[in-house]
Each structure stands twice: as C-alpha cells, then as structure tokens.
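Observation: inputs received (chain + iron/sulfur cluster).
Thought: call the complex predictor directly.
Action: predict_structure
Action Input:
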Amino acid sequence: MPTGSLVEIARTPTTAAQPETIRVPEIEPGVGCNFDSYLLVPDTSLDTRIRAALDRLGSSVVILGHHYQRDEVIQFAHFRGDSLKLAQQAARTEARFIVFCGVHFMAESADILRQPHQQVILPDLNAGCSMADMATIDQVEACWDQLEALGGLNVVPVTYMNSSAAIKGFTGRQGGSVCTSSNAAAVLRWAFERGERVLFLPDEHLGRNTAYRMGIPLEQMIVWDPYQNLGGHSPGAIRQSRMILWKGYCSVHQRFLPEHVDRVRRQHPGIRVIVHPECRWEVVQKADRVGSTEQIAKTVSAAEAGTQWAVGTEIHLVNRLGKEFPDRTVISLDPNVCVCTTMFRIAPQHLLWALENLGQGRVVNRILVDEETKGGARLALERMLSLQ
Ligand code: 13P
Ligand code: SF4
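Observation:
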C-alpha cells in the first residue's frame, strides 16, 4: 500500500490501553487486530514481513529502540539509544507514528513530547518497568504532604525518567525536573540552585551515586520508605538531610554485587569494570567507570582492541557490544544472566502486529497521556532537555 493512501485518522481516542479502530478494511489472513494470530507467524518470515510493512509505511513511521531491546527487534530501529537520546529524538521527529521499542515510561515520555499530528505506539503494553512501579502518585503526594507539614524544608523534586507520567506531572507542577542516568548530575546541580534539599524519585541508587559523586556525604542522605510514617525518619533527621531518596530500585541492576567486581578482577587481570548508575553504591565505588547505556556503549566502542570490559548492565546490551567488537573482551559483571524481562516483552511478533495494523489503518496499543498530566510532565521534561 503506498504511503499516500495510508490511514485517515479523525477520531478521539478514549483510553491509552485499547486498540483503536479507525476503519475496518478487508483483512488479509494473518493480518489483523488479534495479536494471537501473530504467534503463529513462522520466525523465518518475520523479518521479511516487518521490512515489507516498513517499506509500505515509509516516512510515516519511525521506530525508536532502547539499547536493551533484543537483536531481532533493535535491528529495525531507525534510532537507538539511552532514554535521554530517545526522548530527544521523540521530540524532534516528524513521522506521524512513533513506534517505541522500549518500556511504558519511555513511550509515555514520547507522547508527552510529541507534536499534535503524531501518535505513539508501544508494541506490547505489558512492557513496564518494575522500578517505575515502586512509586505511585498517591504515595508520592502523601510523602510531599508530610514534608510540607514539617514546614520550611525547601524541597525540590527530581524524578528519574523511569517513573510514570503522573509522577512527572507532579514533579513539574512542584517546580522540579526529570533526569536520566546520563544527566542526573546536571539536573541535581540545577535543583540545588533552587532548594536546600532534593526529593529524588524513584531510584535510590541513581540518586545516591550521583549526589555522592557531587560531594554530598552519605550521612546527608536518607531513604524514604513510603510504607512508614515520615518515610521511617524523625523530623530532625529529615531536616538534616539534603537528599531524600525514594526507596526504589531496579531489580536487574541491584543483582550486581561488590564481590562480582572482586571476582572478575581476580579472573581477568587488567579488566576494566563499567557499570550503570542504577547499581548499588558499593558496586559503583569498586568500578572504574559509571555511565548510562549510551555512555557504556560509547566507552566500549571507543576502547582499543585487546581491552577487556566487565559490564554491569542488562545482558542484551552487553552481548551486543561483545558481538560488535570481537577484538575486545566484553563480558557481564554477573555470570548469571541479567535480563530485563519487561524490555524482553517486545518481540518481533509485536512489532510486526503493530506495523501491519498501521498498514491496515488501525493504531493498536496507542500510548496517550491525559492533557492534565501532560501539562506538568512536559514542564518537567522540558526543564531537563533545556539543561543539555
Ligand atoms: P538509560 O537511561 O541508561 O538508557 O537507562 C534506562 C534504564 O531503564 C536502565 O535500566
Ligand atoms: Fe526498569 Fe530496570 Fe528494566 Fe531499566 S532495566 S527498564 S530500570 S526494570
């Protein structure tokens, strides 16, 4: 189908989670709204059909892929990167459909930053993030109310990209900013120019690692447990803190332990250890380098032949770097494979389903953030983007 005859969209979508029927054309066998039939598509024809669907859709579609996506999916990404790079790309792309091969909070951010004529699609709505789920908007608002009730604390909220649109909206309305793993220090500097302390959501490790590298001592950081009154602290302890770290973590990165660093150094003398800042503070202290997925990829790609790297991040990126740079040794810091199971939800079958439905005039799995949430969330995202 030529691009010109594609999709007439004139409807008001109702929810983010429902497939939207725009018009129902004659449907070819194996092409349709029902995803289950795509489970039967033989692996051998997936690539050919995805390419054909992309050819038909032409410049009306752009695929954004996070570094943790599997090879079978990332090969089709027009742009790949870390969460910051993908958010920047989402904000500047012109394509009518943004198919986000990543997780839910990334697609939500793309929907917040998109232009009015665009729509964002997440090929599998089950691709969430367990860390983002560790802070609900009700918990964060309850925390904020308790901090305000103490009086005179002058707190600036900073939320990691890995959080719901509702929390980004709250952050924006309260004068705070989003950050990612590659710009957290710049955003924290910005926040400390505006307030005495920061409420950092929802990853305690990124918050601690970043603040510590900026010179804030551990004694000035407390962890807020949303299931306890005042987060589990006395008013005095909260007043003495500069960083209030939300009790949240990434189940993939928290698996890396300091003893893994010791072991890999024993087993591979001379190896360099590079880890993601979602790792525990004790692991980061023992590493040679720390950086976002994009920074890890750039570091390994710029390294000399013969160098050895133990990487503390999700296994698909580690394995890909190993394959792309066979003259370097690239291994996982943890010999037990660390997979992000939600990133893994996006299978080539989902991508094909989303693209072939687009070709048939249907937008499936659209991600749509409501306008009220969007207002504050856009503020918080744009504050971050303006700091680059
Ligand atoms: P990056 O911002 O480094 O891509 O990290 C996102 C993420 O979810 C890491 O777990
Ligand atoms: Fe979330 Fe961790 Fe997966 Fe990143 S690796 S998307 S933080 S669960």
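Thought: report the result.
Final Answer: Residues 1-30 have pLDDT under 50 and may be disordered. The longest strand covers residues 61-66.
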